[in-house]
Amino acid sequence: MSFHGKRPNFLIITTDEQRFPPPYENPDAAAWRTANLKGQERIASRGMSFQRHYTGSTACAPSRTTIYTGQYPSLHGVSQTPGIGKSSFDQNMFWLKPDTVPTLGAWFRAAGYQTHWRGKWHLSYADIDVPGTQTALLSNDNNGESYPDRVELYREANRLEPYGFKGWIGPEPHGKSQANDGTNRDPGFADQSIRLLKELDQAYRANPDGQEPFLAVCSFVNPHDIVFSGHLLQNWFSGFQAALEAGSLPKVTPPPTANESLQTKPRCQQDYIYLYPRMYLPQATDETYRQFYYYLMGEVDKHIDSVYSCLESCSFFEDTIVVFTSDHGEMLGAHGGAHQKWYSAYDEILRVPFTISNPQLYATPKTCDTLTSHLDLLPTLLGLAGADTEALLRKLRISHSEAHPLVGRDLSSWIVDGNAPPDGVLYFMTDDNVENGSQMWNPITQQPYNSVVQPNHLETVIANIATPDGSSLWKYTRYFDNPRFYDTTVKKAPIVGAGNPDGVVTAEGIPPEFEAYNLSEDPLEEHNLMSPHCEKRISPEILGQLETLLNEQRKQKRLHPQTTNQDAGEETVAPWRD
C-alpha cells in the first residue's frame, strides 16, 4: 500500500507487562483506565483494536525476541529471562546473535527502510560495561537525570547496528538498580523518541522526495515496575504515594480467582506461587499492589501521549502507521495469588492490547475479535509496506544463518480494507525457567531455593472449535519436561546446555500434564476440563481436535535451527586452548 504515492512509515510503541483488561475488571478501575490512558485512547480512536491478541512466548526476553524476529524461541534461541536465578552472563542464558535469525530491522532495511530503536531492547546483551566487570555503564542517575556524555557515547557506539537498528541509548532498563527502573527510564525514552521524530520531520520537510521511509520502535518499560512492589514502594515511588494520599487512584477489586486452590491445575502453578517469595521478594497481592499497577499504566501512558502528540505535529503523520502493543501481561494476584508471568498460560499473561492506527485507514475507531498473535506483526507490517517477502528472504539468507519463512499471518489486506481478518489458530510456547541458574538464592534472606517442579515447559493452542451447539473458543496447554534443557553429561541438571536441538519433546519418567478451557463458557479459566476432578470433563471429540491442532501448529511453527554441528564427531574437535 502507499500514502500519497509513498510507502508508509511505521512507529511501533510498546509497553512492558501490560495485559488486556480482564473480563472481571471492576467498573471503577475500567472508568479510571479510560479517563487516564489518553494516549492509548487517542491511538485507538484512529485504529483497529484487536480484542483477542496473544503473545507468542514469555517472559520479557523470549517474548520480545519472538515479536521482533517473527519466530519462536525454538528457533531464535532466546528462551530465558535473566534477573532471578541467572544474570545476563549466566551459562544458562542465550541471547540472539547477529547474523543468525533476522530481526524486524534487518527485514525492513533489506526492504529499503531506515530503521531506528529507542527504549528497552532485551533481545541481546548490548550494554557498554565498565572494563573488568559485568556492570553496565549507566546513562542516568537514580532520579532519571541523564549523563549527556554517556548518552552520546551510547549513541555513537550504535550497539544495535548488527541487528538492523540505529540510535539505541543504553543500558538495558533491567535489573535491581533504581536508575534502571521504568519510572526513571521511560521519560528519557520518550524524549529520545520525540527527538528522533523531530529530526526525521526536519529532513522530510527539507527534502520530501529524497527520504527513505522509516520504521521506528519506541519501547517503554512500565508497567513493569510492578515487580518492585512491596518494601521498595515508599523509597522509590514517591509519585505513587502522593497519588494514594490524594485519592486519585481507582478501587481495584481482587480477581475472582485470587483464592483458587489450583488442585485441578498442573502442579507447577502452585509450586511457583509457593517459591516466588522465596526466590524473589515477598509481595502482598493487596489493593495497594493492584493500584500500583494502574498507577504505572497511567504514568507510561503520559509518555505514549507525548510521543503520539509529537507524531501528530509531523509532516508525515498521515503517512505513518502506528502499532501499539505490550510484550506480555501480568497475573496481578489471579489464580491463587500469582505474580508476574511464569508457569501458566492464562489470559492475564498471554492476552495483550494490540492496535494498528492510521487516520487514512481508520476515520473512526474499530474493534475486532479475530484471534491474532505477536507472530503476525512482522509479516503484516511487511505486507503493509508492499514488500516482496520471498525476495527479501533470499537476500537475508546471504547474511543470516537462520533466515526462514515467517510463521505468522500477513493481515495487511484486511487492514487496508478496514475489515476484520478471519480467525487463525494461535500457538504459544515457553521454556523460561527464570529461577534456574547459578544464583539460586534469595537476594534478601540469602537462603537457597529449589527449582519449580516439573513438568513446567508449556505449549498452548488457542482456536475456535465447531461443536453441535455452535462454535466455542478453546485453549489447550501441554506441560512437559523438555530434555533440551538438560546437561548432556549430568542428566536433569538445571538448564545448562540449552543450545542442543530440542527434537525430543517428552522426557523419560515425567508424564505431561494438561489444561483445557472453554473460554466461551469459562472466560476466567477456572475449570480445567482435563482434570479428573472436574465435574464436566472435555469430550473426546473436542480433545481430539485440540490435540490435532497442537500437533499441527507445533510442526508448522516450532522451527529449529538448521545450522547445527551434529555431523562433527568428537575425534574432529581439537583440545581447548586460548
Structure notes:
- Residues 487-506 have low confidence and may be disordered.
- It is built from 17 helices and 11 strands.
- The chain has 578 residues and is of the alpha/beta class.
- Helices cover 30% and strands 14% of the residues.
- The strands form 2 sheets. A 7-stranded mixed β-sheet has the order 3-4-1-5-6-2-7, sandwiched between helices. The chain has a 4-stranded antiparallel β-sheet with strand order 8-9-10-11, with helices on one face.
- The protein has helices at 27-36, 38-44, 60-69, 73-76, 104-110, 148-157, 182-206, 233-236, 238-246, 267-279, 287-312, 334-337, 347-350, 377-384, 389-399, 412-417, 540-557, and strands spanning 9-15, 47-54, 114-119, 214-219, 320-326, 354-357, 366-373, 426-430, 457-467, 470-480, 513-518.
- It has a domain at 9-255 and 286-417: Alkaline Phosphatase, subunit A.
